[in-house]
Amino acid sequence: MTTIFDTLHHVCIVVHDLDKAVAYYESLGVGPWYDYPKSGPYVEFEVPNEAASKAMRYKCADLANVQIQLCDPGELDSPQRRFLDTRGEGVYHLGFEVPDRDAAEAEGRRLGMGVIARGRRADGSGFCYFDTRAEAGIVLEIRKTAP
């Protein structure tokens, strides 16, 4: 059965200290790390706090089979900041690559999942975070990588 959650793209871990976390992973041989490449502007962008979203810092490492993202949510209020404050460091979301961002978002909504945040670029790339914390223990995200 094919679902919108077939192809794991990344695991996002929220941390207190991004540089410290990167240094630890590097000491284990995980890396190289690079800044998350925030691509072109969104034609649709709905997040709980746009200033907090822009202030978040991410580092990524591409492994053979999946990407690890480390997220420092900053001090402004956001779902990631609240997660860190209430649960501590850990996996905030799993990101799944989809061939069609819009169709995957529609399918998630059809399945009854609420949306925390979403963004779409003119080229059809973008993301949608589903509020699956109560059922899955974490957030599930679908994303379409920019060409």
Automatic annotation (TrEMBL):
Transmembrane segments: none annotated. PROSITE patterns: VOC. InterPro entries: Glyas_Bleomycin-R_OHBP_Dase (IPR029068), MMCE/EMCE_epimerase (IPR051785), VOC_core (IPR037523). Residues 7-145 form the VOC domain. The keyword Metal-binding applies. Keywords: Metal-binding. It comes from the Bacteria. Pfam families: Glyoxalase_4. This is VOC family protein.
